[in-house]
Predict the structure.
Amino acid sequence: MTSPLHNLLSIIQNSADEIEAVFEKHGLEFPSINDSEDAQPYEGNAIRLDPSIQGATTLLISAASLQMFNSRHYMSSTISLGVAMESDIVEILREAGPKGMHVEKIAERAQIQLITS
């Protein structure tokens, strides 16, 4: 089984290959990050409307965005679990019974300052 990081790398590589192939087919070079936008002829900008370019770009951006979301989600999940363990949230909820308890009451019992925005 390949790792999520290698899967992401594969998506990036395949998307880059597809984008470069479309540019090459039209006799254009993919713009350099060092070029100003004004350095692009109009035809170079119009190629971005090609369905293959749009599809590959969407896949490229969404794959990276998903990976970033997952990374941030794991970190917040780890922090949340740590707070729950250190504050004995399980015991507080067990004592509350099947109806549960409002978060403000949980915070009060656990002696946690509840931050609301």
About this structure: Residues 87-117 form one domain. Residues 31 and 80 are 44 Å apart (CA to CA).
